[in-house]
Amino acid sequence: MRYLSLDWIEEIARLVAADAELQKVGAQHSIGITQVITEAPEGTVIYHLQAGNGTVSFGAGPAEPEDVRLEQEWFTAVDVATGEMTAEDAFITGCIRLSGNAPLLLECQAVFAGLDPIFSAVADSTDYSS
Questions:
Q1: How far is CA 13 from CA 23, 50, 86, 125, in A?
Q2: Strands 68-73 and 43-52
Q3: Which pLDDT score is estimated for 3?
Q4: Span 34-52, mean pLDDT?
């Protein structure tokens, strides 16, 4: 499946919903993150991660409510997803632009740690070419 396609988003969403440990993290943390990827092969892609009230969800479209918005171009998203660039380097160099409650990202690191194995699980079946 193509990276950031609706099929890819739906597969991540399915795995997030099925991960009992990650769902427990949703009881301890609350955050809504919208990712905006521009210049993707199909145009602009918007998806979200929502944690809180005992659940974590992932899906197409913006977070509601949105605490943080991350914007980047396709090539940056691919580089970060494939390990060619760290997310930290992408932030430092301005390749990922952040708006909203940045300190909340640090407070919710457990959510992101829970997502890592899910992204790794789909990486082998993901096509990152443009």
A1: 12, 11, 23, 15
A2: unpaired
A3: 96
A4: 97
User: Distance (Å, rounded) from C-alpha 123 to C-alpha 120?
Assistant: 5
1-15 confidence digits (pLDDT tens): 999 999 999 999 999
The answer to whether residue 110 scores a pLDDT higher than 90 is yes
Instruction: Write the CA distances from 75 to 66, 84, 95, 98, 109, integer angstroms.
Output: 24, 10, 10, 17, 24
The rounded distance, in Å, linking the Cα atoms of 129 and 13 is 22
What's the pTM? 0.93
For residue 102, the Cα-to-chain-centroid distance in whole angstroms is 15
Number of helices and strands in the chain (H, E): 6, 5
Average pLDDT value for residue range 81-86: 95
In angstroms, the CA 119 to CA 33 distance is 16
Beta strands in the chain (DSSP E): 31-40, 43-52, 55-60, 68-73, 97-100
| Helix, strand or coil, per DSSP, at residue 59 | strand
How many alpha carbons fall within 13 Å on the CB side of residue 71? 7
pLDDT of 53 reads 92
**pLDDT of amino acid 130:** 83
